[in-house]
Amino acid sequence: MKVQSVGAALLAGVATCAAESFRPIPTLPASIDNGENILPTIMNNSAVDAQAVCPGYKLMHMRETKSGVDARLYLAGKACNVYGTDIDQLQLRVQYQTRDRLSVQIFPANIPEGQEPWYIVNDEQVQRPLDRMPVGPNGSDWEFSYVASPFSFEVKRKSTGDVVFSTSGTKLVFENQFVEWKTSLPSNANIYGLGDIISENFELKGANRTIYAADIGDSPEANLYGAHPFYLDHRYVKVNGKTKGYAHGVYSRNFHGQDILVREGGITWRTIGGSIDLFFFSGPTPAKVTRSYVTEIGKPALPQYWTLGFHQCRWGYANITELDDVVKNYQKFQIPVETIWSDIDYMDQYRDWTVDENTFPQAEFKTFLDGLHAQHLHWVPIVDAAIYVPNPSNGSESYASYDRGHALDVFMKNEDGSEYIGAVWPGFTVFPDWSAPNVQEWWTNEFLAWFKEIPFDGIWLDMNEVSSFCVGSCGSGQVDMNPVHPPFSLPGEKGSIIYSYPEGFNLTNATEAAAAASSSKAQDAYNSKVNPPSTVTTPYYQIPAVTPNVRNINHPPYAINNAQGSHDLAIHAVSPNATHHDGSSDYDVHSLWGFLETKATFEALLKVFPGKRPFLLARSTAPGSGKYTAHWGGDNASTFYYMRKSIQQALNFGLFGIPFFGVDTCGFGGNSDLELCSRWMQLSAFFTFYRNHNIISANSQEAYVWADVASASKTAMSIRYSLLPYFYTLMYHAHKSGSTVLRALSWEFPDDENLINNDYQFMVGGGLMVLPALDQGVTKVTGYFPTDGSTTWYDWYTGAATFSDGKNHTVDAPLGHIPVYVRGGHILPLQAPALTTYQARKNPFEILVALDKSGTASGSVYIDDGESQNVKDALFVALRATKTSLSLNGVSIGNLNNLKSYLTNVATVYVLGVSAKPSAVKVAGSENCQFEYDSQTKKLTIKLPSSFVYSKGKQQITWA
């Protein structure tokens, strides 16, 4: 593999795009992104089993400390050097850090600082669980034990008596490019997490999980954009004849490429570098595990209130007029819209911090954005990871952002010290190095300067895995060709016309489906002539010989199952041998690039918007990303399959500490249709981040395109905008405690093993359950209605009690209707909906009380100005209900007078599950209120006086 440059010979065949191209410039050959044809080790039957040939370790010199255990591990026999060079001495360090958190570290011993044979995670870059004053073994719920030779260890939870992690009967393998350890699993273990991956099943037994950030689109079972080596283990046992669920979490703080094999009997971990750095979280409920884990990696940011509104985007809004038309059409059809987004169309030749003066002239664009802001609407542009390198042979070309970065020496390098030059949308590009001393200064100043010209409201970070369209530093010596076209056809160019439609389209639109199928077949025939299949078969790259104490960075001896291309780590990505200022290579920090970019952008936006919370949306994430950014599910397709899988994605990212999550509603790739878009617009209305987005040249899919979609969207959006105070309060709790917002039913009802694989319905907080229709042509859906003994489920639309028996039930779900249920025992703060969040915040509040079987309920509402980074004025109101009363107990910080514009009156209280009509309803024990009682649904509606507002202190409403 040529990792420094593709060379002049490869580019000699560069062609000019045909007239159909959007960019008539030289096109890179497809071969520029071909790497070695590698067989992943887990697929190679001839690969050596390290467990069979390696000696393992023996423990010696163990000493107990106040915090735990320190010991040395010595190689127990002849080095096997099977996928790297064995390390002969290791340090074992066990710390009982808090009551519910145990740390187990294994790392090389006797290696001078700065001479480590590989990269260890930088604690200043990626937050390490805090080493507070350790509680020691007596103060912990954990018990660590070991066998000295061959070394193995076991982690047991004292409170439940179960062994949660055991390497007994296996060997530890620790080499400079390969670390393997195995733990057993009992048959009752259920594993969740280990992402960013879309799985066939929510529960993971039998799955292979490869972690390595890749720009690959949403391919099922493949390593996608981020790296989250954390899992939740949920086990069910019988206690006194009843099923009881216990959960714990395991975080492996290692971000090298890795394969994790989840099997019925255990989990095998294999990484191609780093150390063993494990953290155990005892729970024992799923909710407590998540809170503990998220608290340690970094609790999520509280978003600005407006970001909870509806967002519209597409790749293909070609000019200002089109953007303006989209906004006006949403307003014309009275469909809420909060924010318009721009993909790479707005840029000058796809270069960051620029606008195309032909289609988005700066002066006119600023006028358009000022108009949006006058209506309390917003604009968010995309910013890509790669920075264009100007053509030195074209004297008229300049790109100041590159020039400034080059002068400050902020880009990744080749091993010879030259700039690493890959290829992305603009052509040949360089990539910021987040360890460079001047990189934050440069990055911040580019955003500050651009904001003065183009007043954006947030930033969308894409391509940050980090992606490159060629193998190696393909632009080295070639930048005098810039700009160049990517080595593939863009959607809409000849040979790349979009003809795909959702499942069942042939049943509802037979004529159009037949025409699309015919055109697709013709296009395939054309492409096979233009680019005939290769008749040359390349042998699989075989396991390279191990050179003692030398790392083979480009082709590590152990090949992870990287889903990109032919499995080479360099395909469609910055190559492993790209170097950083801190001495690391991309091999070591590849999966952290997007996280570090997000962190740097967050810091930049704090300067752009002094005092305000930055709004970021990023594709590549890692543990702790939720502190800085929202995330969307990436390049999905317009199919019912991807709509179904969006729920699984949302639940997993809540587990990973990124509760602000959504997907490209109606699908990104391919053509959507009326039925799919109708269902999806309703489903996504209950996700935290709500955006419709699709690919250039596909059918338009804005909510107003189809009348039925518009109607369905209005129905769901009315619910969502009513629930904005509830969503915002849930995000506040997530920000303060690390709790989840969108939740699997099994996390809310941890003792019900019927919920093991349920990812087709979900909870919004603890009080709302969504049961969407997820298949083409259905008019009914079957869902499970769990109970904890006191739960009653109420229909959102009628307020009537429904099912509360812990069984499956089938309910009506005609097109345009999404079943939603309120859980008894919960109180939901509401606000009358509007077309924007700004208008909605001025409307009266409402309170929805759903009594449980014992006649009680609780909830809360959090109110602040919706934008301040450091909140000085806020109100938190605890809500409590009994069979005959509702109490509001408000606690404020700062000055409530500064929140007057957000503290509108509470107009209505709805109480569900009131057994009989009351004779009177009173406020503060004296003032009578108007009320209505529906004896059929047992719903009490109370109209409060206009003077009733949320405030500090205690207020009470009674009925009897």
UniProtKB/TrEMBL annotation:
Which SUPFAM superfamilies does the entry link to?
Answer: (Trans)glycosidases, Galactose mutarotase-like, Glycosyl hydrolase domain
User: Mind listing the GO molecular function terms for this protein?
Assistant: alpha-1,4-glucosidase activity; carbohydrate binding
The record ties this protein, via PROSITE patterns, to:
GLYCOSYL_HYDROL_F31_1
Per the UniProt entry, the signal peptide is 1-19
EC number(s) stated in the UniProt entry for this protein? 3.2.1.20
Q: What class of enzyme is it?
A: hydrolase
Entry keyword annotation includes Hydrolase: yes
Q: Which UniProt keywords apply?
A: Glycoprotein, Glycosidase, Hydrolase, Signal
Glycoside hydrolase family 31 N-terminal domain location is 149-235
Glycosyl hydrolase family 31 C-terminal domain: from which residue to which, for each copy?
A: 738-828
Q: Which family does it belong to?
A: Belongs to the glycosyl hydrolase 31 family.
Name the chain's protein.
alpha-glucosidase
In which organism is this protein found?
A: Orbilia ellipsospora
